[in-house]
Automatic annotation (TrEMBL):
Protein name: DUF1972 domain-containing protein
Superkingdom as given in the UniProt entry: Bacteria
A Pfam family: Glyco_trans_1_4
Domain DUF1972: residue ranges: 14-183
InterPro entries, alphabetized: DUF1972 (IPR015393)
Amino acid sequence: MNQITRKFEPLRIALIGTRGVPARYGGFETCVEEVGKRLVAMGHEVTVYCRRRKTDSPAPSTYLGMKLVHLPAPQKRSMETLVHTALSVGHLMAHRVDAAIVFNAANAPLLPVLRAARIPVATHVDGLEWKRAKWGNLGKKYYRLAEALAVRWSDALIADAVGIQDYYEDAFNAQTSLITYGAPILSEVGSRRLAEIGLAAGRYHLVVARFEPENHVDLIVEGYVNSHARFPLVVVGSAPYAAEYSRKIHDLCDDRVHLLGGLWDQQLLNELYSNAAIYWHGHSVGGTNPSLLRALGAGAAVNAFDVVFNKEVLGDAGAYFSVPQDVSALVEFAETNTDDSAKRSAASLERARLYDWDMVAGKYELLCQQMVADGRHGQRSSGRRYASAWG
C-alpha cells in the first residue's frame, strides 16, 4: 500500500473490542484491518488487541504494520467480549496511547477506566445488537443499558449507517459520527476455481452469512426450495452459537442447495461473489454490512431483506424481500430475466464507489485528532461532539 501523506501529527491509536486481525469473522474485524493498515500508512502507530487463538504456532506481533497484542478470552458467548476488552484496557493502562477506538457498545462499562486515564475514546456502537435472537432477556437488557452508558461515557460515538444514527438520536438524543465501512472493488477476479466446487459462472445463487435468525438464511432457503429454480443455491456460513437454527436450515434444504460451511479462502470467495447470478442478503439488524459491500464491489446483482439499513446501501440497485414467497418470485424472475440482473450488476458497482476505505480511514484519523486536541484543551465531551464534522 502506498504511503499516504497527511498534515496531521502522528498519533498512537489503540483499536479495542474485536477478535482482532487478520480479519476472519465479521464487520468489526474487517473495519479494524482496513482502517488500521491505512492509519499506519498515514504515519500513525496502531495497536490492535486480539483474542488469543488455540494454535501451535506463536502469535504474530505485527500485521500489515499494526502492532498486535494477543490476550485470552473465555470461550463463552456471554462473557467473551467484555472479559477480553477488560484485559485489553488493563494492558493499555501500562502502554498508553493518544486515542482509543472501542468497538461494540457492549464494552461501555469499561469506558470510565479509559476516561480516568485521560485517554480520549470513541465507541463504534455497531447495530441494534439487542434485537439479535441469540441473546436472552438478560442479554437484551444488558445491551440496552450498554448503549446508554456508551452515550454517557464516550468522547464520541461512531455509527456505520444513517439508520443507526437515527436510532441514537431518537432513543438518546445523542449525535453520532457517521463513518460507514468501505467496499472492496473486485476486478479481474476470474472464475477458474468455481469448477472445484462444481459451479459455473452466472449460474448459481449465493448467500454469505452466519447462521443467526436475524440474517434470515432460513427464509431465503425456504423461498428458494419452494421455487422452480434451475440454478443451485450456494450457502457460505456456519453457526458458531446456533446449533438449533443450523439444523433448521439443513432440514429445509433440497439437493439444489449447496451448504459450504465457513469458507476462509479469500480468492475462492471473491470468485463466488463476482460470478453469482444473484447475491442474497438477509441481514436485518447490523447497520452497514461488509458482506453486502463486498457483493457490491464484486458487481453482483443483490436481492436483500427489506430493512432501512439495506435500502440505504443499495438504493435502486437492489430488489427486496420480506417473506419466503418474495424469495420464490425473485428467484424465478432472476433466472428468466438476465438483462435485469446485468443492469443491476452495473448499478451495484456504481453504489460500491460511494464506500471508499481511504475516505473511511481519513474520517477515523480526523476523529482521533479532534478528540486529542479537545482533550488537551480540557474540552472533553460525552458522546455528542463530532457529528457535524462531516456529512
